């Protein structure tokens, strides 16, 4: 994957392609299959989460995100496929690795009558975490100023941050959050996002699922797009953003010649029923005038040549619509 963008570096990403970053995968799944009453809800799902950074597991409702996460955590048994976390096969070796993993899959239970801090103190005692961790994790999720308030007075966003704090008590390297911003208001969503980004910036791996692209887009380093029980695309957020960059749509008679010419000029060219789609391979944005000039020099005159732009939402819908599943399935590191 190429073309680290400003956005990607803002998210703390190195300029290395996401799948070449040192350390290998924090989480890996190959060919996961799950059936409920004979109905397949995971159909050979492959997932690759790089070590360090925020990885978004993105897909529409019912696409299989929670099921995948539950399999990784040993809460549901897969009917096929393999998975590992930090190199340990799961669920077989889960006891060996679970101490290095923190997860929120369902809303954790806290005592409404106790303060945020006391809830964590009780929890720390029960899992053998040192008492000093309580203040540290409260600080890390930005609840230090509200630690003495009763849990019942917390907003939904604060309750969720307390849940994240609870997962941090044992100092996990990998954090798995299933739709952590569900039901939160914009302020709560912002706070959770900031918290997740901070956790990744401190060297942890955060896998976060969501069906809302915009929630992931701003903080993720890489994403896996799930549709109908499969990962249909995986890659760095930079490539994903590149997909939404402007491209040039061309209709002309000698399409094969034009394709060769533009590819040799460094452009990505895809053909479909509505003509050629010329897009960037390296961050260079194609401009209609420049493309027309390149073609005109060898006597290729387009009937139509327009600049188009897909929103990130459109890219997401395109990838999850099912239209491209056969073309995209299993193509790690490509977004198309
Ligand atoms: N225990 C279960 N019994 C039967 N069907 C289930 C069970 N759990 C999940 N499913 C079905 O499996 C499919 C995938 O569900 P899953 O919760 O994994 O999707 P999701 O992508 O997390 O969706 P959402 O964004 O709505 O949480 C859905 O059709 C769901 O109804």
From TrEMBL:
<dbReference type="InterPro" id="IPR027417">
    <property type="entry name" value="P-loop_NTPase"/>
</dbReference>
<feature type="domain" description="ABC transporter">
    <location>
        <begin position="27"/>
        <end position="253"/>
    </location>
</feature>
<keyword id="KW-0067">ATP-binding</keyword>
<keyword id="KW-0813">Transport</keyword>
<dbReference type="GO" id="GO:0016887">
    <property type="term" value="F:ATP hydrolysis activity"/>
</dbReference>
<comment type="similarity">
    <text>Belongs to the ABC transporter superfamily.</text>
</comment>
<protein>
    <submittedName>
        <fullName>ABC-2 type transport system ATP-binding protein</fullName>
    </submittedName>
</protein>
<dbReference type="InterPro" id="IPR003593">
    <property type="entry name" value="AAA+_ATPase"/>
</dbReference>
<dbReference type="Pfam" id="PF00005">
    <property type="entry name" value="ABC_tran"/>
</dbReference>
<dbReference type="InterPro" id="IPR017871">
    <property type="entry name" value="ABC_transporter-like_CS"/>
</dbReference>
<dbReference type="InterPro" id="IPR003439">
    <property type="entry name" value="ABC_transporter-like_ATP-bd"/>
</dbReference>
<keyword id="KW-0547">Nucleotide-binding</keyword>
<dbReference type="GO" id="GO:0005524">
    <property type="term" value="F:ATP binding"/>
</dbReference>
